[in-house]
Amino acid sequence: xxxxxxxLVDVTRDLVHAATYADVSVGDVCAAAxxxxxxxxxxxxxxxxxxxxxxERNWELVRxxxxxxxxxxxxxxxxxxxxxxxxxAMMRAMRERFGAVPGCPLGxxxxxxxxxxxxxxxxxxxxxxxxxxxxxxVVRDAQARGxxxxxxxxxxxARGVVACVQGLTVLAKADDDPAVLDTLPLLARRLLPAPxx
Amino acid sequence: xxxxxxxLVDVTRDLVHAATYADVSVGDVCAAAxxxxxxxxxxxxxxxxxxxxxxERNWELVRxxxxxxxxxxxxxxxxxxxxxxxxxAMMRAMRERFGAVPGCPLGxxxxxxxxxxxxxxxxxxxxxxxxxxxxxxVVRDAQARGxxxxxxxxxxxARGVVACVQGLTVLAKADDDPAVLDTLPLLARRLLPAPxx
Lengths: 197, 197
What we know:
Chain A is mostly helical.
């Protein structure tokens, strides 16, 4: 039963990635998963419930990249570079799998559903704030070591970095070229300048 | 006749802004515009043709903001600030009109259709490259005056600024708060640092 639930979420994620959330119907998910509608509605009473589960799974995956990069024994800005490298590797892997740069799993949904679905929007805002807060911790560590200008507001600076990740991903998607993301580490360093000499 | 064409494009833009491109059918457009399908198909043989016209109209509007800000008699980085102020004013006005931050008219479409529609993706890539090139001209002017580090690649630096605009707009949409964009001028300055002393 739990396997069916997880499979429905994974199938939905793939369908949404290859198209958009609006394009994917409950019927599409049932057909792709080989599950009847009764079973799906047992786990997810609505398409929105399924959408919320996709959101959580997407965040779990990005959070996994953040955990792995940020828990490493390395100077703070190197840990940020590790995350940016892992994110870029994820984009390249997704392009291999889907045949086109599908964009950020969280940014895509934020862009698509926020103006229409207050519940999904609110959860996306929480998730993006949590992502930003993770980066802000790195900024604080870097400031404590004297690697980053101590007058920067850590959360605002971190939001700039996350915005750059999101925006450059949109440009990479429009160009269908993951290499657009290669300047991310350089841009992140400019957004987190060293203390004035 | 030309009025009908322009009206169909404007009605479609509003419907897409309030929802998504996938959510809007040719029938929805006809109903909202008070036009029958025959008339619509006279101007637009397919939904994609209508989508391409919406794209052009959205670019025309953003290009208008760029023209107005960048043709001003002012130092280059002040011209960039003028554009960022005009963009933020547009987002606030769109929020008033639609009841929620609808996102960037071009970034939304890039995020939604790029992985599915090669023709729209190619045109979006051109438009975003043209936007970036406009910003790159400002960067070059600023470098010539000694306001920006001359070792920066102007196009790559400009792409960082456009990415920041796009990404912060995604975060503003998720937060449904245009004030998220208020840090744009500060972030743009960090992405375009002064020459080393």
